[in-house]
Write a structure and sequence with these properties.
Layout (H helix, E strand, L loop, with lengths): L7 E8 L14 H13 L6 E7 L4 H10 E6 L4 H15 L4 E6 L3 E3 L3 H11 L5 E3 L30 E3 L2 E5 L7 E4 H13 L7 H9 L19 H18 L8 E5 L3 E3 L13 H4 L3 H15 L6
Parallel strand pairs: 1-2, 1-4, 2-3, 6-10
Antiparallel strand pairs: 4-9, 5-11, 6-9, 7-8, 8-10
Helix pairs in contact: 1-9, 3-5, 6-7
């Protein structure tokens, strides 16, 4: 295991006050999500640098809490795709090879040890460039050079080389969402691909993970427009998907390794999250997220001015 110093951590937290129609657990709120990442950051031996990219106006108390903990950058994105592309472009231009960036969305609940485990893994496993704290989909590394496959076992179960760091076992992950960690060098080299992938449509975050790892994200059946649905937009999307497939095959020296945490150390606060491609691992199922939410509310009452319902 590496004895290198932990990387410098920057947290880019993308937030908007708008809500959607996704089914949420009863304890969900964006105030809770913000409090939970601040609580997890408090446990780090060195405070991270927070950058809050706010798409539109936020409630005054939430905004004031952000201003006390980091840099607030207003943006005019208007969509998840636009704010993600802005976040990647901005941070790739600012970071150097020794930085470590955690891109965060505003609807995740963090366990207190999530970020300390993340930095422990980033320190211990220098061969990996990308890290996930959410998602149990595991990569079958024996399936082939360009066609990825899911292992039937979730998380670290069945991984030929699971590795401990922090409070988790780390495994070769198949994919995750747009909340992930990346080393500065990889971010700078991959920024163009990361900014291209949102135009592929559908589950572009999972497709991004495959392309970065050198696997074809789209079979032919998912590229070509069909029937009466052919429009200028679908043709453009097909062209972008072809470009993503080509890029994935041209990465022999830059096939990234994505490691995931088992158990999951953050929770996407959706009921029946459609981005989850496999059931949670057994260890993740033992996490009582309602208890994590309650602990976070107590922390927020003691440390902040937020009243987290």
């Amino acid at each position: 295991m590496s004895t290198a110093r932990p990387p410098r951590l920057t947290i880019v937290y993308r937030s908007a006050d708008a809500e959607n129609a996704k089914p949420r657990p009863r304890y969900y709120s964006k105030d809770l999500a913000l409090a939970s990442i601040l609580r997890s950051a408090e446990a780090l031996p060195q405070p991270p640098r927070f950058v809050f990219l706010n798409d539109g106006a936020l409630p005054a108390e939430r905004l004031a809490l952000m201003e006390r903990h980091g840099e607030v950058v207003p943006i005019d994105g208007g969509s998840n795709r636009a704010s993600f592309r802005t976040a990647v472009a901005r941070q790739a231009a600012l970071c150097d090879d020794h930085d470590f960036v955690w891109f965060a969305e505003d609807d995740y609940l963090y366990r207190a040890e999530a970020l300390t485990s993340l930095t422990a893994a980033a320190t211990a496993f220098p061969e990996a460039d990308y890290f996930a704290l959410y998602g149990s989909a595991a990569l079958d590394t024996d399936a082939g050079r360009h066609r990825s496959a899911l292992r039937p076992q979730a998380g670290a179960e069945g991984d030929p080389n699971p590795r401990p760091a922090g409070s988790a076992m780390w495994f070769r992950a198949h994919s995750t969402t747009s909340t992930f960690g990346v080393r500065g060098r990889a971010l700078r080299e991959d920024a163009a691909l990361l900014r291209l992938m949102p135009y592929t449509g559908g589950a572009w975050d999972a497709a991004t993970c495959l392309a970065l790892q050198g696997y074809l994200p789209y079979p032919v059946s998912e590229i070509l427009p069909r029937g009466d649905g052919v429009t200028a937009r679908t043709v453009l999307r097909a062209a972008v998907r072809v470009a993503a497939d080509i890029e994935s095959t041209l990465r022999p020296t830059r096939r990234r390794i994505l490691l995931g945490a088992d158990p999951e150390l953050i929770h996407h606060m959706e009921v029946n999250d459609p981005t989850t491609r496999t059931p949670p691992s057994a260890s993740t199922l033992r996490t009582h997220w309602a208890h994590v939410a309650a602990e976070t509310r107590f922390w927020a009452a003691d440390r902040t001015s937020l009243v987290v319902g």
